[in-house]
Structure formats: C-alpha cells, structure tokens
UniProtKB/TrEMBL annotation:
It holds the Pfam family DUF4126. The keyword ATP-binding does not apply. The chain crosses the membrane at residues 12-34, 46-68, 102-127, 147-176. InterPro entries: DUF4126 (IPR025196). Residues 7-180 form the DUF4126 domain. Coiled coil: none annotated. This is DUF4126 family protein. The keyword Cell division does not apply. It comes from the Bacteria. Keywords: Membrane, Transmembrane, Transmembrane helix.
Length: 192
C-alpha cells in the first residue's frame, strides 16, 4: 500500500513538474522543512534550508521568465528535458523503501519522467497554439494557469494523492482532446 501511495504522490508531483520544473521541488523542500514529508534516503538535501532558498529563487525566476514574450517558447525547449528529470527525481524522492533500488529508479524514470514529459509536451502544444492564434498575447494567461496548476498539484499530491492522479489523467485526456479539436479547427479554417 505504501508503494502505491508513494507512486500516486510521485505522479502528482511529476505532473506538476510538467507545468513548472521548480515548483514541486520547492513544495517538497518546504514540506520536508516543516516536518510534513520525509524524503527517501539520498534526497535529504531537500530538507536543507539553503536548498529551499535556492529552489525559491529558481522558482521565482522560472515563473517570471514565462511572462516574457517569446522567451516562454524558448524556455520550453529547455524545460521539456528538465521536467522529465525533475519528474524522475520527485517520484524517486517519495518512493517507498519496499521496492528494490532498481525497481524504484525504473518506476521513477518511467512513471515520473513519463508523466512530467507528457504534461510538459501538452503545455508546449497549448503555448504554441496560443502563440499562433493570439500572437503570444494570451501566453501570460497560459503561464499563470501553469504555475498555479503546478502549485496546486504539488500541494494536493501530499494531501490527496489518489485524487490527484485521477484528476491529472482526466485533465491530460481533456487537454489532448482540446488540442486536437483546435488543430482540426485551424486546419478547417486554412482550407476554407
């Protein structure tokens, strides 16, 4: 049961990494500093105050950079692999001791990195669509939704992890369908 709960928390945090790389790590660091979360062996660095401060600075810089026109699109090229690494690390940091080291890392890479990558790719598609249809004017709205989603997902991952996984899967399915509909509408408008 502890393994499943750890994976649910990891999936939620990984999905949050797909929105913003540093927000889930900052939430984990704050949670570990106040005693709400104990990171797995090897991830004790999350509970160091200077690491928390560094993650806070990185989070503010990342959020601010996504409000700069065209920089947000450039950041997505760096954020995609970074989100996958962060998703892997967050999942590994909450994995249970019940699994072997190999199984923990395999699950973290596949589940954590995969979830973060899928969410990040959907945000890239949404931002690309926003840039194409509004010339980037709506991108700050998209950015606000992303960092708020990352914060909310990160917090809820610790409070109600199973619900977060269900909501994340539903949201991902909805986002993929929405993107497909918008692409089809744009294709139909281009043909007309």
């Amino acid at each position: 049961m502890e393994t499943i709960l750890g994976l649910c928390i990891g999936i939620g945090l990984s999905a949050a990494c797909g929105f913003r790389v540093f927000v889930p790590l900052l939430v984990m660091s704050v949670a570990s500093l106040v005693g709400w979360f104990e990171p797995m062996k090897g991830f004790e660095w999350l509970a160091i105050p200077s690491v928390c401060i560094a993650l806070a600075v990185a989070t503010v810089c990342e959020i601010a950079a996504y409000y700069v026109p065209w920089v947000d699109n450039i950041l997505d090229t760096v954020a995609t692999p970074a989100a996958m690494v962060a998703g892997t690390l967050t999942t590994m940091a909450v994995s249970s001791g019940e699994m072997s080291q190999f199984a923990s890392w395999a699950a973290a890479i596949i589940v954590g990195g995969g979830t973060a990558g899928a969410v990040q790719m959907s945000t890239v598609a949404v931002r690309g669509l926003s840039t194409a249809t509004t010339g980037g004017l709506a991108n700050p709205v998209v950015s606000t939704g992303e960092w708020m989603g990352a914060l909310l997902l990160s917090i809820l991952s610790f409070l109600v992890p199973v619900l977060v996984v269900i909501v994340a899967v539903i949201a991902l399915i909805w986002a993929v369908r929405w993107i497909r509909i918008k692409k089809q509408q744009n294709l139909n408008h281009s043909v007309s």
